[in-house]
Amino acid sequence: MTPDQALRRIAFLLEWRGASPYRVRAFHTAADAVRDMPPGPVDAAQAAQLRGVGPVTAEVISQASTGAVPTYLARLQAEVGPDAEAGWNLVAASAGDCHLHSDWSDGGSPIEDMASAARALGHQWAVLTDHSPRLTIAHGLSAERLRSQLEAVAEANSRLGPRFRLLTGIECDILDDGSLDQDDDLLDRLDIVVASVHSRLRSEPEPMTTRMVAAVRNPHVDVLGHCTGRIITGRGRPQSRFDAETVFAACAEAGTAVEINCRPERRDPPDDLLVRAAAAGCRFAVDTDAHAPEQLHWQSTGYARAARIGLEANRLITTWPLERLLAARSGRQSSSRGGHG
To answer: Which of 304, 296, 289 is nearest to 32 (CA)?
Structure first.
């Protein structure tokens, strides 16, 4: 176990126990600091000189650098018991993230910075999903800007190396009638489409259900993003009302994954709806909805939630190798064309 692996595992176990996000973040920050450190023993005083490393994390680094299990980690593992192991195994199995934003819309970092951060975490792939045109407050991408972004992603991939691929995508607004806020010809060119409701979140349940079902049945849509639209921090925002059984049944039938959104202010869907989506037979995408590189660490919270309700890696498309992910999308679109032919 390397120092960065020990620090990541401690962060996960702290999350599992419900520790403060600030405390969790301290271990992720320290893991970033030592990620490229050469192998070999490091004493705690040396480690403490690294940016973002404090006395506790320095001691963890020092102990792990000798190959030992750090005392802090051993204590946490004993306290949480074996149930957390299933969650950690899902974190370890993660292959990618279907929901990232860059400074092309409302993210704060360039495309290549987001991709490099995902690659550094060990992902095989990640999907760039900047907003669609209607979300003007988030500087959503017009058709012309999206075409330009496709070229930018291709250029980024030429520099990122063969072991990682940034996929083209969009977080597309679900319009009032359930249609999508982007041209079909462009949606055809994308690798992954996340569809989300960002407007009229307080609609009556019947029109909201109709709207969502139309979207998840659209063959262009791969993931239903943050399905309730809730915000659970600050002044908050109540969750949208819809017929969960009908929407999740449509997702399961169409093969559209339900997103487990890992943003701390969202954690959407809530636990009761997550259980109902699982019972409906849905697939899931454990996504960070990251708007900055450091937010990619949030993914482990979603895997912890998935493990707690007994979901296995096979139902989480973010654990799938790239080839399987893209083959599944191609298969769904082919089936849809055949069904209409």
So the answer is: 296
SS3 192: strand
Give the model confidence (pLDDT) of 233-249 as tens digits.
999 999 999 999 999 99
Low-confidence residues of the chain: pLDDT under 50: 339-341
Contact 102, 128 (CB under 8 A): yes
Q: How far is CA 13 from CA 23, 129, 182, 235, 295, in A?
A: 11, 29, 41, 29, 18
Query: Tokens standing for 42?
Result: 């490091």
pLDDT of the residue at 341: 38
Q: Categorise residue 326: left if φ over 0, alpha if ψ from -120 to 50, beta otherwise.
A: alpha
Sign (positive or negative) of CA dihedral 91, 92, 95, 101: positive
Can you give the pLDDT at residue 70?
98
Q: How far is CA 240 from the centre of its chain?
A: 21
The length of the chain is 341
- Beta bridge pairs of residue 172: 195
Contact 178, 221 (CB under 8 A): no
CA trace torsion 29, 32, 37, 39 (10° rounding): 90
For the chain, give every residue range classified as CATH 1.10.150.110: 3-80
Which residues are within 8 A (CB) of 302 and not within 5 positions of it... i.e. 6 or more apart?
A: 260, 261, 262, 286, 287, 288
The pTM of the full predicted model, rounded to 2 decimals, is: 0.92
C-alpha closest to that of 108 among 247, 236, 296, 283: 296
Query: How much of the chain, in percent, has pLDDT values that exceed 90?
Result: 91
CATH top-level class of 92-340: alpha beta
Domain with CATH 3.20.20.140 in the chain: 92-340
Query: What pLDDT is attached to residue 247?
Result: 98
For the chain, the 3-state helix, strand and coil shares in percent, each to the nearest 5, are: 50, 10, 40
**CATH superfamily of the 3-80 domain:** DNA polymerase beta, N-terminal domain-like (1.10.150.110)
The three-state secondary structure class of 3 is helix
* pLDDT attached to residue 75: 96
Tokens of 269: 């869907």
